[in-house]
Amino acid sequence: MHIGEICTINTIFCKRDETVQAAALLMRTHHVGDLVVVDQPNGEPVPVGIVTDRDIVVSVIALELDPASLLVGDIMSDDLLTCNQGDDVYETIERMRLRGIRRVPVLNANGGLAGIVSADDMLGFLAEEMGELARIAPHQQSQEKRARH
Q: Which domain holds residue 84?
């Protein structure tokens, strides 16, 4: 299966020159815990970083800094792991595991933001796969019973 089939398409994003306070309000409005930070060189949003609610707490609130005077670009993580819509789910899981990253922006063919995939999305996908696998044995047993009678 490809990442494009399980990622969240309606990804909330902001620019790096957005204030941290505005980013927090955007997270609250959309009920999300992260924002993909983008540049828009040709009008298409291109991921350059990510900022999480945890980043805001640890880098701003805990240090008693003013979120209205800091920019998202000041606190975002810019060591960004991305994947493409056509990337394999299992390969992406491995890349996330190796880097210890829970959220990965998904790129379209032009390198623009197409969505985001999270560890929770991956868990949901794997749970469905395990459920399908668990249905094999009972199905096989019922097939055998019918064949013997």
A: 3-118
